[in-house]
Amino acid sequence: MITRRGFLRLAGGSFLSMVLLGAYAVGIEPMLPAHVKHYALAPPHWPVGLKLRVVALADIHACRPWMTPERIASLVEAANALQPDIIVLLGDYTAGTHLVTGWVRAAEWAEALSGLKAPLGVLSILGNHDWWTDRAAQRAGAGPTASRKALEHVSIPVLENDVVRLEKDGHGFWIAGLADQLALLPGPGQSRFKGLDDLDGTLAKAGDGAPVILLAHEPDIFPKVPWRVSLTLSGHTHGGQVRLFGYSPVVPSRFGNRFAYGHVVENGRNLIVSGGLGFSIMPVRFGMPPEILQIDLGSA
After folding, report:
1. DSSP-assigned letter for residue 180
2. N or C of the chain: less Cβ packing under 10 Å?
3. What are the backbone angles phi and psi of residue 56, rounded to the nearest 5°?
4. Alpha-carbon torsion 260, 262, 264, 269, what sign?
5. What is the DSSP code string of 80-110?
């Protein structure tokens, strides 16, 4: 039978452990240097002989003290050091929580991102928070959002239901970018978010038979993605922000852990979901440190 002193020791130890874990999850892991998560694959429709390195940054969520312009600039240096052929930004540049000591203006985080360099360029899409934090865009029900304007001001193209055709080593391929699937907040008498994405219309712009890499902030679109798309890249989930033994208790997806994180292959189609760099709602990361994606296509 446990004594009163033993119970107090156990309770005290448990409380201290919870405090230490909480301090780590808020003050340490979110601030760790981003590690590089590497994938190598030869997806469907990928030309033999085309080796392409894609580096992806997702869910920056610029804010002080966790994701300052100086820290974003260091992430830019880390991404450039991977010697990518192309860099893609997967949305959510604005803060995702009100628990911040200071906001980072769009001009500040965009200027930090302007240092990204790759031979085939830097392309971007927007995320839900880039829409939700823009009151003017919410009232109008349309963009351009402040995030889009900031990115374009530093010469980073934003793909919203649009495509770009690129070429390397004599092989052509398409980068397709969806508008956000949760862009507009529910209005009076409404219970659902309204997406501005147009998957069919976007892919119709990829007119020839060259392979397609699809950028979609939320991975929930993946079941609708046709087989002609070689690879879908997403963010949004942050891997759940808390992830233990391959499981995330809370995932902002109607599919739960199915598309929470990592490389998913279904019916011969490939999806990679980034764990992201920042956080939303709560300033916590545990078991899911910040990451930059390096994807080597044609190298499996």
Report:
1. P
2. N
3. -125, 135
4. positive
5. HHT--SEEEE-S--S-B-S--SEE--HHHHH
- Here the tokens at position 280 are 């939303």
Angstrom distance (rounded) from CA 262 to CA 259: 8
CA separation (Å) from 55 to 15, 94, 123, 141?
41, 20, 11, 32
Percent of all residues in the chain with a pLDDT value above 70, rounded to a whole number: 89
Residue ranges of domains in the chain: 1-31, 33-297
Percent of the chain with pLDDT over 90: 73
- Strand, helix or coil for residue 173: strand
The answer to whether residues 181 and 197 touch, using CB atoms and an 8 Å cutoff, is: yes
**Cβ neighbours of residue 213 under 8 Å, at least 6 residues apart?**
54, 173, 174, 175, 176, 229, 230, 231, 232, 233
Q: Which residue has the tokens 């080597």?
A: 296
CATH assignment, 33-297: 3.60.21
Q: Indicate whether 300 pLDDT > 70.
A: no
The pLDDT tens digits for 8-51 are 453 344 333 333 343 444 546 566 788 999 999 999 889 998 99
The verdict on whether omega for the bond into residue 65 sits within 30 degrees of 0, i.e. cis, is: yes
pLDDT > 90? residue 285: no
Q: DSSP letters of 111-159? A: HHHTT---TT-EEE---HHHHHT-HHHHHHT----HHHHHHHHTT--B-
Query: Can you give the pTM of this predicted structure?
Result: 0.90
